[in-house]
Amino acid sequence: MWYHTSMALDNLSLNIITEELKSQMISTKLGKPFYLGENSYAFPYSKKENEVITHGSFVFCLEPTNPFVCYTKERFDKVNETSPFFNSLKKLTNGTVTGIEKFQGERILTLHIQSDKSDITETNDSYDFILELFPNRPNCYIIAYPYEKIVSLYKEHTDLEKGIFLARNTTYHYPEPKEKLPLSLQDPEEARPYLPNATLRYLKSYVNELHHDLNDTLLKMSESKEIYVNKKDILSFDFGLPDAKKVKVEDLYHHFVSNQKEIAKLDKIKELLHLIQHSLKVAEKKKINLHNDLKTAEERMSYLEYGQMIYLYQSEIKKGDKILERDGYTIPLNPKLDAIKNANFYFKKYSKAKSAIKILNEIIVKTENEIEYLKQKENEVQYGTPRDLMELKSELLEEGYIKEKQGRNTVYKVSKKHRYDPHILLLAGGKIGFGMNGLQNEELTFNLAKKENIFLHIKDYPGSHVVILEGENNQEVFLCALELVLYLSKLDSAEVMVAKKKDVKKNPAHIGLVNILKYETKIVKRIRPESRTLFDKELKRS
Predict the structure, then answer these.
(1) Which member of 101, 183, 187, 222 has the lowest number of beta carbons within 10 Å of its beta carbon?
(2) Cα–Cα distance between 448 and 437 in angstroms, integer?
(3) CA geometry: angle at 357 spanning 352 and 361, to 5°?
(4) Which residues are within 8 A (CB) of 202 and not within 5 positions of it... i.e. 6 or more apart?
């Protein structure tokens, strides 16, 4: 994943990256852009030379803590993105890269792109694609020609004191060029105007503490054709750092993003996870309000005694009285009403409270079922395979959490002939089934499982259905099933309910919820490494 501190991408290392990009991308045609996740984007590109077609991807990261640019031959999982900025990148699709320049003395890179003339809707001759790779405030601009105005940008940047106003339909102005790093200096501190703080710190240590020649080091830094990564910093020289690693430009993205597929998956489920978590938050708030209402209703049960006391002492009450104090009771009265009407007022309040208690208790049970259900969906959406997630969306549509939209009412529906097959784990001594959504859970427990099969579920916590379909008397199979229950619940240890399938009944409140009528419990304190590997493999395989 990303490092969470500002990266030093200095001018020297960007010079090296720029030269690599030139060799790879000049005369290439850009494909449709795609979103990688974590503020990272890419343009696939291709070029045909001597009947040989080469492919790659131009990657640019606008993460504030570590902006950088590179190319790669790696394949990615694409993520849906609908932001205005991402949509504007599509303007460059089928454009041809005619030049790549790094601005002198600044971390600014410009791609010159000839527009696609075969597109009859294209009104611009060409574009400049400008990347400002400044830590903490990276930015990106698309300049259209002959219009010569910004037609899209990543973030607007305004600084009235400095006279900076960058937005759509304004002109982009490059800063004043800076001088190149001098190769003859008396002291490393003199390099401060030309180097980021991290690079300057490494230079000082290399020269002052390791006693290397300053001007020789500056020459090596300037003439370097290699880039090095030291934790968070991209450098053109290793400065004798023990952790500095030489990295190819085409491997730079992979170095900083260890698992793009996982990032892509999290981005894909972000909207679904947000919907589930929002519904869960609403349900939990509803439960709190219901308990408050129940407490109020229970307190009003004393109104029966209030009414009875008023009847008992009605001869002593007259209009205008505000309170009745008798037998240890202090009962407020409405001075505009007589005794009978005051008593009837409390009787009605008592009757309503009595009815409310019954209704509120029923609603609280339903709300608790809903909370349990949604917590399980929260687990499933993070663990599920693409098939599991497709079915989960269909389930949430059926449950009413996803609303059908006109013109798109089949987006989350699967075919009526679709089988909600649960996952099956095959072992040497048996077979274990488990569900990754409510529809799979019900298929497993109430269609596939036999009456005497062993059903397992985490106790007092949302979890998947796990059923030992074969080999219930095999201790290794039973232990593996217990570990699987723990694994699917993402807990370190837990109490697991063990029941016969015949003692498991559907809970009609939600798909996949059950009531277990009779069970024993087993404590599971850990998952063996070999079991975890087996479970990971099953979910990835599926």
Answers:
(1) 187
(2) 15
(3) 150
(4) 230, 233, 235, 239, 241
CA distances from 488 to 121, 156, 378 (A): 51, 44, 12
Helix and strand counts by DSSP (H, E) for the chain: 12, 25
What lies within 8 Å, CB to CB, of 204 at 6+ separation is 188, 189
Residues contacting residue 159 through CB under 8 Å, at least 6 positions apart: none
Q: Cα separation of 2 and 172, whole Å?
A: 30
CB of 412 within 8 A of CB of 434?
no
* Average pLDDT of span 242-246: 92
If we measure between CA atoms, which residue out of 131, 137, 134 comes closest to residue 59?
131
The CA-atom distances, in angstroms, between 418 and each of 159, 160, 415, 510 are 57, 60, 5, 20
Q: What percent of the chain has pLDDT over 70?
A: 92
156-165, 207-216, 287-296, 359-368: least confident range: 156-165
Q: Report residue 531 CA to chain centroid gap.
A: 27
In this structure, which amino acid lies at residue 255? H
- The C-alpha atoms of residue 88 and residue 168 are separated, in whole angstroms, by 12
pLDDT digits (tens, 9 = 90+) for 124-150: 999 999 999 998 889 999 999 999 999
Look at residues 136, 168, 164 and name the one whose alpha carbon lies nearest to residue 154. Answer: 168
pLDDT exceeds cutoff 50 at 409 = no
Across the chain, mean pLDDT equals 89
pLDDT at 359 over 50: yes
Structure tokens at 408: 């798109």
Question: Is the peptide bond between 146 and the residue preceding it cis, with omega within 30 degrees of 0?
Answer: yes
